[in-house]
Design brief:
- The strands form 4 sheets. This protein has an 8-stranded parallel beta barrel. The protein has a 6-stranded mixed sheet with strand order 2-1-3-5-4-6, with helices on both faces.
- It contains 24 helices and 18 strands.
- It is an alpha/beta fold and about 750 residues long.
- Helix 13 (about 445-450) links the parallel strand 15 and strand 16 (about 460-465).
Length: about 750
């Protein structure tokens, strides 16, 4: 902190000088970076003159900030300043050069392209904002991960839902999806955090975003939402996301013609491109919501009219949106395994493949990246069906299945890696279905996770996001802002970590500490950084120990799975019989018990070691939060952020006590030693107390109950009775309940050769 204070003192002298910003105003990405620099500079009460790059030689301001937005501009600026040019010519790369001569300081961004210019300019803006411009020296920067994206399940309309629409968050966000104010803020934040891909996922978006000449009545005017309350009885395949009763009671949220809608999404895509962000539409198949019943269109796989409709819709999607960068497709959830002309992959080629080819006949210059998910299909079948596709053709893999907060090197892609070649690289779907409420933040974990991703010969990029929640505006808070915060704004630190580190994984922790200091000046930033990290380590620890591969099977915020076809609340017995994450090196309780009673060495992390780690992280978090609260003042966001850390600490203590109880009870199950059962009861009583503390802070900050798409209704305080029942389960336990036989293992690995 002393070093930061010295930088701030030095910067005050520098910023007091007359300053000029020189850049090409015709480059939108550079203009955005310039606006951020102006904003940061204006915060000091000063203004900055603007000039074109051509004025560099004549400008005599004591402080000059230069943004060169391509190789030619960079070479010219480097020559004028007599400095080394940009080190890399790779896309998105940039170099920063600092020159102090004749009483004048120049900080220049020399970029390979517009995106690099924007990122370099954002570095300069950040240095001004944090007071570290005097320390900004010569450096070179190249993207570690080429494409860094957001997976956004988008609830367009009651008639064209996404996979997540049977949830409170989705229903309340439908109107936001048609608000340009929302997308302006969202895309600006994406750019600030260095994300450059926005993937929009919808079951069947075409009626809401295109008008097909052959099927004009399919196009939908207006934006509508159903007045029929959602519940947790919807299919997990999305097949009944539109029920007839829902369509019988619709409200109009916004009056728009289909032409208005097309204009809206063209503007969103233009704005995204001006921030260096590519836009993709992803679909599941075969869904015909919004079109079914018109022109003979049905979801049957062998319906030729449906095939023709999809093909025409894909053609119009490509032609209607010249700035659309790509399309993602899925061989499911509604597709059948067939061996005839209507097989999954033949169907997808006849619709998406031929539709894109039709568009290219009309607009030969169009290039569309096509991304085919591995989900519910096989690689050989995919590549055979799309062997004649002329543009970039890539695949997509569920990298950590549904749990990015588990271990930093998930093993599931290992079987696929030998079959992935540079001509058909894969994207990593990084699912965040662990945390819907809290502000997570552990730089160490994020950095390790990014560094463990396969290299650019195998991976084209990643997109992260949930299936069970919507990263739109938050609709959980008991103390909401007006308008409500965007999730990307509320969880700014988490998005910053993942975005910045995926661009530059060796970015030092000092950048994050300084950002915390600026955001929360009331507290010691270095302590806040450490406490935030400790609290955030709880989720990976518990999910690697208690594994449910998809989100329906495991939601660690609530110790819950969907009650239909799964377990509901996971009891202490489930913990005894549960499995650990493949590749985590963690022993499950049955394995641990066998080794312990046989006197064998433990080949892996034991359940008690996991419990100890959880307790340690929880203790550090809770101790740190108590200290930080002494100086939180009246800052509501700081108070709520500390509340999230406290909640994660109590949750860590709950799981630590529950795991210890489960090990005690597992031993009693074999030995019938009463003291082991009594120890289990005591640990479960402790677990109950920890849960009560967790539920209290949770209910203070987040509305309950809430409906989520994949796990159904969640009521943290209301689940206290379930937590208490664990004590009775232990007291009434009958020895011999748990066999030593291997437990059922989930297998949702998304690769079939």
């Amino acid at each position: 902190m002393k070093y930061l204070a010295l930088l701030l003192m030095g910067e005050a002298v520098c910023l007091a000088q007359p300053a000029a910003l020189l850049y090409d105003r015709n480059v939108p990405q550079a203009a955005f970076a310039a606006s951020e620099i102006h904003k940061a500079y204006a915060a000091s009460g000063r203004s900055m003159a603007e000039q074109s790059l051509e004025a560099l030689g004549a400008n005599a301001n004591p402080l000059r900030l230069v943004i060169a937005a391509d190789r030619a501009q960079s070479q010219k600026a480097a020559g004028a300043l007599a400095v080394a040019g940009s080190k890399s010519e790779a896309a998105q790369s940039y170099s920063i050069r600092r020159v102090a001569k004749d009483g004048r300081t120049t900080v220049a961004v020399l970029a390979a392209d517009a995106a690099g210019a924007m990122y370099g300019g954002l570095d300069v803006a950040e240095a001004i904002r944090l007071g570290t411009l005097d320390g900004l020296g010569n450096s070179d920067h190249t993207a570690h991960m080429e494409r860094r994206g957001i997976k956004f399940n988008i609830p367009l309309d009651a008639r064209t839902p996404s996979y997540t629409d049977n949830s409170d968050a989705a229903q309340k966000n439908i109107a936001e999806m048609w608000s340009f104010d929302f997308w302006r803020e969202f895309l600006d934040d994406m750019a600030r955090h260095r994300y450059n891909v926005l993937s929009l996922w919808n079951l069947h978006p075409f009626p809401s975003i295109v008008k097909v000449p052959e099927y004009p009545d399919v196009a939908l005017d207006d934006v509508k939402r159903s007045l029929v309350p959602m519940d947790d009885t919807f299919s997990h395949s999305g097949s009944d996301m539109v029920r007839p009763v829902m369509l019988s009671r619709l409200e109009t949220l916004k009056k728009m013609t289909i032409a208005d809608k097309i204009g809206f999404w063209r503007n969103v895509m233009q704005y995204a491109h001006d921030r260096g962000i590519e836009v993709y539409w992803f679909t599941w198949n075969i869904f015909t919501f919004g079109a079914e019943g018109k022109y003979g269109i049905t979801p049957e796989q062998n319906n030729r009219k449906t095939i023709d409709y999809f093909r025409a819709s894909v053609r119009e999607l490509v032609l209607t949106y010249p700035l659309l960068d790509g399309i993602g497709i899925t061989a499911g959830e509604q597709m059948q395994d067939r061996n005839d002309e209507f097989s999954k992959e033949k169907w997808l080629w006849k619709t998406y493949g031929e539709g894109i080819m039709d568009a290219k006949k009309i607009a030969p210059e169009r290039r569309i990246r096509l991304i085919h998910r591995y989900h519910q299909t096989a690689q050989t079948e995919i590549l055979d069906a799309f062997k004649s596709y002329p543009d970039t053709f890539e695949l997509s893999f569920k990298y950590a299945i549904a749990h990015m907060y588990s271990i930093p090197n998930p093993p599931f892609i290992q079987d696929a890696l030998p079959n992935i070649v540079p001509s058909h690289r894969t994207w990593l779907t990084v699912r965040d279905d662990d945390i819907y409420s809290f502000r997570w933040g552990d730089a160490e974990y994020a950095r390790e996770f990014v560094k463990a991703m396969p290299g650019p010969d195998k991976v084209a990029g990643f997109y992260m996001g949930p299936d069970g929640y919507i990263w739109g505006r938050e609709f959980l808070s008991t103390e909401p802002e007006q308008p409500r915060d965007l999730v990307i704004g509320k969880r700014w630190y988490s998005f910053m970590l993942w975005g910045r580190l995926s661009y530059e994984p060796d970015l030092p922790d000092s950048v994050f500490v300084q950002s915390i200091a600026k955001h929360f000046p009331e507290v010691a930033a270095d302590k806040m950084f450490r406490v935030w990290s400790e609290a955030s380590k709880v989720f990976p620890q518990i999910t690697r120990f208690f594994w449910g591969d998809i989100d329906v099977r495991w939601f660690p915020e609530a110790c819950l799975s969907h009650p239909r076809g799964a377990k509901g609340f996971y009891t202490v017995q489930h913990f005894i019989q549960g499995q650990t994450m493949p590749g985590s090196g963690v022993l499950d309780i049955v394995e641990w018990r066998q080794n312990k009673l046989a006197g064998k060495a433990m080949n892996g992390t034991t359940p008690l070691e996991v419990a100890d780690a959880l307790a340690k992280h929880a203790a550090e978090a809770l101790r740190g939060v108590a200290e930080l609260r002494r100086s939180q003042g009246q800052n509501k966001e700081l108070r709520l952020t500390l509340g999230d850390m406290e909640a994660m600490g109590h949750l860590g203590n709950y799981y630590a006590a529950k795991i210890r109880a489960a090990t005690d009870l597992a031993l009693f199950d074999k030995t019938s030693k009463v003291e082991q059962r009594e120890s289990a009861v005591r640990n479960l009583q402790l677990a109950l107390e920890h849960w009560k503390r967790y539920a209290y802070i949770y209910a203070m900050q987040y509305e309950q109950p809430k409906l989520y798409n994949r796990v159904g209704w969640v009521d943290i305080p209301g689940m206290t009775a379930k937590v208490e029942q664990d004590i009775a389960i232990a007291r009434l336990w009958t020895p011999g309940t748990v066999p030593d036989a291997a437990q059922v293992r989930y297998d949702d690995r998304p690769f079939r050769k």
